[in-house]
Amino acid sequence: MSVFHRFANPNRFLKLTNTVLPWVSGITVVSLVAGLYMAFFTSPPDYQQGESVRIMYIHVPSAWMAMFIYTSIAIASVCSLIWRHPLADLAAKASAPIGAGFTFLALATGSLWGKPMWGAWWVWDARLTSVLILFFLYLGHMALMNAFEEQERGNRAAAILAIVGFVNIPIIKFSVDWWNTLHQPASVMRADGPSIDPSMLWPLLIMGLAFKFFYLAVLLIKIKSELIEAKLRKYRRAMVDSA
Amino acid sequence: MNGFLNIVSKDLRLALRQRSDLTMAVLFFILTAMLFPFGLGPEPNLLARIAPGIIWVTALLSVLLSLERIFLADYEDGSLEQLVLSCASLEIAILAKVLAHWLTTGLPLIMAAPLIALLFNMDTEAITILLIAMLLGTPSLSLIGAIAGTLTLGARRGGVLIPLLVLPLYIPTLIFGVGAIDAAMNSLEAGAVIANARPHLLLLGAILLVSLLITPLAGAAALKQALE
Amino acid sequence: MDQIMNFFSMGNYGAYIWTAYILTAVVMLSLLVTTLQRLHKNQAELEELQQLMESAKQSNNKEETARP
Q1: Dist CA C54 CA C57 (whole Å)
Q2: Which ipTM was obtained for this model?
């Protein structure tokens, strides 16, 4: 809790952001370049899927981020509702568009991978449907957040929605195990260790790292921007009052 | 307990007085379902096969139409606050509101469903399963819808927001509701009808239990901040 | 030359693979660019406002000192 409250101070948070941001951006760029190089040049074509397997290096990290960001929003929402932590609201608000973007990418790249492999752009199986639901949850969260005159009410309503919608996350995760589906079962995050070859696992993990740091970088910039906006509002109000 | 019954009976009396609300949902249900034979052609086997999906989708849309009125009218004229005060807890008040909504929307839909099923040439066994599935499924629709109803209180364009919030959450109910009837219709032996539909019905029950748990909590949190 | 062509054709999956990668780049870049634009706009406004307040304060002080 003490660490938590320490960064509740906007100025302290801004200072922290300014020192951390160059590092986060640097890691993003380096891991992105390394991941892309490995994805295209050192990883072999799949013995079944041929070269099309290279879509995996963006599809799977996008899908991880779609679920990871939603989970972060749900956690931030709990913090916002219980401790009324102002930064939690900002984090949730800033995360939603990024999460929606990655969910869209997971669906779109999956579609581009599915067409040559399954012969269809889209199939109505459990994994695809539940990710589509996740996409609409993101959109609903963003719409609800902006639907109120007072930002405070939008934040709380969206936080409640995010927590309710969290039931979808385990459904997405386990949908490939519970239902027969065209989608492949998990091959990295399994209890008995990853089942894919290291030559493919490494580029995948590095791309995952790159996407995660990209999210962190954009998130920090967005929160910084929101904090400046809050300052602007405060100044404007002060000017109106004094005038 | 008194507060609970008060809310239910007040809402029921109101619904009976303004019968237009009550009949709107059912009329919408029947009329929309009636459009499909014109759109898809009157071939009896085709209609029987797609009937479960059509009945569920139209039922879902009819429920959607009535969600806004669960809380909005009371919120706007200020009586929501009194209702909440008269009840032992917010959670109980919400459950009462949901029960009243189900009695005035879900139940009439269930009663109208066999009529549509007959028009679509479904057989009696499938209709039985349809009714059981709707009995288990429509309360979940009211419960999930109530969350969206409380969340959008005081929002701009609340009526447009509700479908966006609710429809994604309705999809599981739709899937298993239709699945139960499809499984029943696909079973060849007479005795296997219930056995085939059972897993789907159990999942519908599970959804009902989960929404019974989540709705009072989420709805109470949403109402609290709406009434602040 | 052939090697380059081979690389871009990706065993005849090129169209799918490159579309996927370009789409990803477009979405991620637009997220980043819109965020940065907003930040710069806010920073510029903040600076402007701070200068305005600073000059308002100074002119206030002048008025007070001018008064006998």
Answers
A1: 5
A2: 0.86
